[in-house]
Amino acid sequence: MNDHYEFDATGALLSTHLPFPRRQGKVRDVYDLGDRLLIVSSDRISAFDYILPTGIPDKGRLLTAMSRFWFEQMDAGTIGQNIAHHLISTEVPTEVLAQVDPEPLRGRIMVTRKASVVPFECVVRGYLEGSGWREYQSNGAVCGLQLPAGLKQCDQLPESIFTPATKAEEGHDENVSFEVMSGELGQTQATKLKDMSLTIYQDASRLAAERGLLIADTKFEFGEVDGELILIDEVLTPDSSRFWAADEYESGHSQRSFDKQFVREWLQASDWDRNSPPPPLPESIARQTAERYREGYERLTGQSFA
């Protein structure tokens, strides 16, 4: 570790310590630059609500590159037409250049507008998996939305559904009904968030399908700037979405996904009790996970990741 950056033995960036006010999430370090935010995507990885002691090399750069790809699609009107977002630049700002070595930041930062964050995750599901599948097995519904009987794991839903969740400071977010969200935010804002979320998801799903990828589900975050709702945070990355290869898809069982699947499976097979600090990952698991992130990015964008 130098004064500003902390790396693990693989070279993964675990933490940043820049000379600006900071708050730290599970993956991102967010700095207040006064009129803007600087969001740094580290190589940290979390599973089962714990941050692991091992990073995934280049994960932060891949997440940033994928978010940038989608924000550029929004700017071009390919997805989410007329919906604004928070990204200003992915270049290291001058006030940061003046104080720290910028090299570890290159490719992993977003300079963004400041927004008042909406206190709900805006989740859209096109396929039945994860917490939605578990809830459906229990009561035939997801977040209060009754679904047809007889659906199998990973089945495509008759139509995409909006299933919000509360934003938890610690532990899991909690799925709630649209009515709960409306009661908290008001019908007008809740409906607008639902419509915006479904629009972006459906547009992005069509684009991804053209490139051989299925977006099973995703979560968006929104914020408010001068009375306008805008898309914030990362968008449509493997940390916030399930991506599957269309040519491998087969409902009735879990799918191979372009995310931290290797990490979850290794932890589940280990003797870790999930109530104590998690163990370091073997180098092979970290490498395979990095390769999955990279493969998802390259399939989506058609560009090699260097």
UniProtKB/TrEMBL annotation:
GO terms for molecular function: phosphoribosylaminoimidazolesuccinocarboxamide synthase activity. PROSITE patterns: SAICAR_SYNTHETASE_1, SAICAR_SYNTHETASE_2. The keyword Protein biosynthesis does not apply. The keyword ATP-binding applies. InterPro entries: SAICAR_synt/ADE2_N, SAICAR_synth, SAICAR_synthetase_CS. It catalyses: 5-amino-1-(5-phospho-D-ribosyl)imidazole-4-carboxylate + L-aspartate + ATP = (2S)-2-[5-amino-1-(5-phospho-beta-D-ribosyl)imidazole-4-carboxamido]succinate + ADP + phosphate + 2 H(+). Residues 24-276 form the SAICAR synthetase/ADE2 N-terminal domain. Keywords: ATP-binding, Ligase, Nucleotide-binding, Purine biosynthesis. It comes from the Bacteria. Its EC number is 6.3.2.6. NCBIfam families: PRK13961.1 (NF010568), purC (TIGR00081). Belongs to the SAICAR synthetase family. HAMAP family: SAICAR_synth. This is Phosphoribosylaminoimidazole-succinocarboxamide synthase. It comes from Rhodopirellula halodulae. The gene is purC.
